[in-house]
Task: structure prediction
Amino acid sequence: MTMNFALKNVNALPTPTWNRLGINDTNLEVGDAVFAPYSSNPLSALPDGVSVSPLPFPKADTETGMGRDAADFVLANRTYGLSLRTEAGIRVAEPVKLEFRLDGENPALADAVDISAEENSEITVVMSYRSDAGFTGFHGGLTRLYAEKGAVIHLVQVQLLGETCTHFDNVGAFAEEGGTIDIIQTEIGGKAAASGVKTRLDGEKSSLIMDTIYFGDGNRSVDMNYVAEHIGRKTKSEIHVTGALLDESEKTFRGTIDFVRGSKRAVGHESEYNLLFSPKVRNRTAPLILCAEDDVEGQHAASTGKIGENTLFYLMSRGLSELEAKKLMIEAQFRPVTDRIPDESLRSAVMETVQGRLSGLESME
Amino acid sequence: MDKKKTAVQDIDRTVYDIKDKVDASYQVEGGLTPKIVSEISDQKDDPVWMREFRQKSLAIYNKIPEPNWGPSLDGLDMSRIITYIRPKTPMRGNWAQVPDDIKNTFERLGIPEAERKSLAGVGAQYDSEIVYHNVREEVKRQGVVYTDMESAIRDPKLAPMVRKHFMKLVPPTDHKFVALHGAVWSGGSFVYVPPHVKVDIPLQSYFRLNAPGAGQFEHTLIILGEGADLHFIEGCSAPKYNVANLHAGCVELYVAKNARLRYSTIENWSKNMYNLNTKRALVEEGGTVEWVSGSFGSHVSYLYPMSILKGENSRMEFTGITFAGKGQNLDTGAKVVHAAPHTYSNINTKSISKDGGVCTYRSSVEILPEAYGCRSNVNCESLMLDDQSRSDTIPVMDIRNDDVDVGHEAKIGRISDDAIFYLMSRGISEADAKAMIVTGFAEPIAKELPVEYAVEMNNLIKLEMEGAIG
Result:
């Protein structure tokens, strides 16, 4: 089936603000995509304790960060689908790997992946998206997570698509009592990339840990919308985003901590650190805290700017060139997140891609 | 075990709530039509350009939709709002000549007393018209002009300056309620401070809306010459009625090179008021605008003073406090546009929500592509006093070059148990400990206010403690 249209008003802020700022939502051009079943098997051998589940996803109405339209789009054009499950009490350390590649055979990918972890089980799923050099492809994903009581789901999504690809990741998660949702997203490639993650911390003491790194160069754009919805008591969210913008790249980050009435003793922290390397970048941020509960603690901190003169001077006084110093700073910023990717080759692929792109900095000197 | 909550009392409004009998010499019918707008022009003997301006603004008002964000405006029925009410008195320069009932109102609010003690000039507006305007002789001698807008428009010396600036910074196309303002504005103050003149003591305008179901649409235009210095204070109040009242004022501030303007507001409208006010400052090279803003009253507020830092090295500071109690939905904050290099902005706000009150902090910091070397800091803290209330924080930053230093911090929470425990371990009662913490929370704002307003604010956040709190 050939599609050619845009997703309108996705990644919407939970509470809108001035329209003039253009940050209330975004549109994503899907372009001219032909959807056909994914032709190879992206799935690694399943580790013991993880099975492909015949059961429907426990919560079909789970809300996602990008919204209903983006979810329906993937479901309507699905080229790959998978439902994973761990049984109660089984904690699986070995990651499940899903490696996707956009190329002549698979120019457009729409993958729908459901992950459910039964009571007190643990699962790690690593999804990666790459494309052939110079290939213009499309990826749209819908990933739904359900953590039962005391269960832990680790989701790692690594996006290393080529610079003419369009990409979105639409994630919805639900956590029961004591459940943990742990997500790492690396948005490194693509011409236009969007990602939305909405987590409903439903059960008491459920938690979200979200670490994101993004990297923009050329005229690429990254658009993110993260929502942590605190429903249960003593729920906890940690959202940390860090990234770098070069050339004429643009980034929009919306991050919302939503304390719903009844989420007593909930704690939500959000931080954002942006390094800017070119006078033509655009960095937009909307960090929201919505609060209908008094007995909570919410905090947000953001910092945006160039690498500090003092830091640069110090590094250069140790014999580093300005470029080397800048590379080191970005690496230092990304390393704590990439170190948590449980796949050696993927870990180095992320850093190599970033280092390769940073050679662009040289032309600026 | 049930936690016993500290009761933080509502603001005592006795002084503000005394209503005068509505004794208008003229008032238009409710609603908004070209005929009503034309009647206002007739009443005010508008020059031709102003007549046309009002009608144009009305046409814009009819075209622009209501905002699709922010608190609900459903309770505001424009077909019932009376846009123009002239009190039965001409403007006076002497309190003795102001009719007793109106004078007594301002006496109760402490305006004439403050004028004698600590102000360089006072303007007092009652419903749609200024009833009193006076400025000290020594200030007048410095060349400072402080008068009502209508007089400024008719004064042949001032008229060209007014026309050049009037609603140029805040055009009627900006949003629906500023278009409304353009159509029906009435009253307000005009201030001009010549270059290099420093006005040592503040000027103050006080706006009082007495009539039920009415709107107040005063226009404040302040122009500072190069290197001038002024502190302007604005106060607003109204008695409580059971019908919706509307305040849609407009403030335009022009701060020339190296000039400094401090604009302080204590807004204490009654809780039937829709406060949809627009304030904007244009700051030239090396100039400074400082906003101090206390929002305590109103049923619904949309208030975000905006600063356009147009000249290199210009600065803005915004200090604000919002206190929302029962039945209040106060959406407040600030906007700044860094349009020139090496500009600086600092936004510092506190909000307190109680008894089902809703506070929203909303802001935008924009740094334009050519505005390199800018610094901006935003810090907003919210305090929730119970779980029936609501407090939202909605800041946006839009940064379009890399040579910037932008920081943002937001915090929300309730009074910390540890802090109370610590104070109690020092022998302070629990009630006093809570009171100390809330007062301490508001203190950074209180210290920015002029003394008489700081006192007023302390009264406003008067605490009454009861029992033990878990």
In short: The interface with chain B takes residues 13, 15-19, 21, 23-24, 245, 259, 261, 264, 276-306 of chain A (CB under 8 Å). The two ends of chain A are 47 Å apart (CA to CA). The first helix of chain A runs from residue 68 to 76.
